[in-house]
Amino acid sequence: MPSWQDFQPFIVTGLALGGVYALSGVGMVVLYQATGVVYLAFGAVGAMGALIAWSLINAGAPGWAGWLVCVAFSAAVTLGYGTLFGPPLAKRDPLVKATATLGLLLVLFGVMDLLWTTSGGESRSITLPTDNSGFSVSGVQVDWTQVIGFGLGLAIAAATAVFLRYTKLGTAMRAMANDREITATLGVPVRRVEAAAWLGCGVLAGVAGILLADMVALDATTLTFLVIYTLAAALIARLRSIAFTFLAAIVIGLVQNLLTPISSVGNYNDMTPFVLAAVALLVFSRRSVVSRSREET
Amino acid sequence: MAGTAVAAAGTRQRPAPRRPARGTLARAAVIAALLLFVLLALPQLISLYYVDTMTQVAVYAMVALGLGVLVGRVGLVSLGQVAVLAVGAWVAARLLFATSQPFPLVLLETGLITMAAGTLLGLPALRLRGLYLALITLMFAGAIAIVLDTTNFPNGGHGFLGYNGSLVHIPPIRRPSIAGSDPAYFRYSVVVAVLLFLLAYVHIRTRPGRAWAAIRQSEPAALAAGINTTFYKLWAFALASFITGVAGGVYAGAVHYLYSLDFPAQDSIILFAVVLMGGAYSLWGAVVAALLLELLPAVLNNWGVSADWLTILFGIGVLQVLTTAPAGLADQVPRDLARLGRLLRRLATSGGAREAVK
To answer: Residue B13: inside a domain, yes or no?
Structure first.
């Protein structure tokens, strides 16, 4: 068993990654609440934004321009998808809506593999200026990117919770989570509220894309399927509670990283989100078939 | 109803008219002729490259058939079928290295072991439906991929895992003695695939098929009609896992060497997309899906076109299928062709009429 010293750096990386999962998870939960869509292309959009940013920065553009383009791209694609495919699928089953985002995922994935091919063994990376400076807490190096990751996750989760609770738009989103038809009857501009949710989700996807490209790897496949970690956090919170999404994301980040130094399970640490999400799904779904089917129809 | 909506969309336009016996006979004759052609003539006509490709088509037709049973018949969406295929390949490789049993027996055992594993996974998943079931299968697939990444595939080593890390003198996974060459193995795979298609056909045409259809339409109604929904859903999981497991065994023999890289996570998603495009509601859909999934990339590769275009195409295809054509290509193309034919005929007759007026 490794000593406590060995675990300390992994606490820091775990919290930082957990923060980024949290801010992604919040984006997914808000979108699901407002539109009923589980946005599986979340990671792919961010990945493509990050790759575009990498290309721009490599071509000599200043860093901030690259990051802005990344966020703008994610927001534009997400909003575009939402306005194009949201309304025709609005009355379909959540499964169909989620499957359709898999279509977007495949399109983006193909484009990324085509334009930024990985077969040549070329490795890319995005470094933020906050990577190199930092401080140390009881002997553990913490860089500012990690602080941003955790801090942004916390801030976005808190801000979103307040936004949903106290603003008019937030109230409208919560109303739509209950019943889209009745909300529309009450005079809420349903499509505009949905568009706002898509836009917000897209912005968060872009931010998460840049941060994960820096913290994990700038690689289309990795970033695209990191969405599963985020999804796991959102599922543990039953795609409902912002606070639980945040907590679950932090736990996933921590457990996954803290298992790394334990040699017997180190290779399996990537299973954490899958196992946690599977257990959560099973525990939360213990209700009888008939009562739930009435609820859903 | 969450679990059935993908399916329900497709059931809307299926008024099953009773076909006369002659049509059935004619269809059986066409299938038999096609099969004879594929078995006897095809391997002679195409290069070895395409023989290998067509073997993969046979394998993936079985995998698509398994997913088609789940999605099209029962309305259960699984996003982890490629992981099940990997499990089947692992079990088959382990059995083939450990024993000297005849190949068909190993395939049968592989199917049964994979069936047990798949049913065990399906057991807790039975509580879930629709979106949540799809997501949990995605989670299981991710977990299985990581386990296989760590344990590796058997390559003739010792111990339970049968993995030998030394990378020298790795024996190939053996093939049946009657099908050592590539064309012979292709024929062998087609025969196995045909047997599994018959198995699925028998299921669909008899009691389980009717129970599945009832569950797909409405689970509470099926329950009220006295159908043991849990049992028949598990049966569907078992059948799909059996088919996919056998496919894994055939795959292991086809490629000789197995690597975890051969079963990437995105393949499960692409498979699901392609099955939706091919049409999950007919058995032909599985063949169409396999051709899209394996033959098309090989053809494009031959032409020097990147297979990424296909991924893009599949993505667009999913969006198109979900928004406009829920029954997939196997249903849509014949209907579109019929519509085109009607249109042309009408154009011809109206054109002719105008000529006559002049």
So the answer is: no
Report the predicted TM-score, pTM, of the whole model to 2 decimal places.
Answer: 0.82
Query: Judged by CB atoms within 8 Å, which residues 93-112 of A form the interface with B?
Result: 93-96, 98-100, 102-111
Q: Give the burial string for B336-353 (b: 16+ CB within 10 Å, else e).
A: eeeeeeeeeeeeeeeeee
Domain harbouring B285, CATH code: 1.10.3470
What is the spatial distance between Cα B83 and Cα B143, in angstroms, rounded to a whole number? 9
Interface test with A, best of B67, B74, B76, B132 (most A CBs within 10 A): B132
CA of A144, closest CA in chain B: separation in Å? Answer: 31
CA-wise closest residue to B10 among B285, B314, B265: B285
Give residue-wise pLDDT tens across range B107-154: 899 899 999 988 887 777 677 777 888 888 888 888 888 888 877 777
Residue A18 lies inside a defined structural domain of this protein: no
Residue A188 inside a domain? The answer is yes
Phi, psi at A134, each rounded to 5°: -175, -160
Number of domains in chain B: 1
Tokens of B199: 């198995």
Number of folded domains that form chain A = 1
Q: What ipTM was assigned to the predicted interfaces of this complex?
A: 0.81
The CATH number assigned to the domain holding A73 equals 1.10.3470
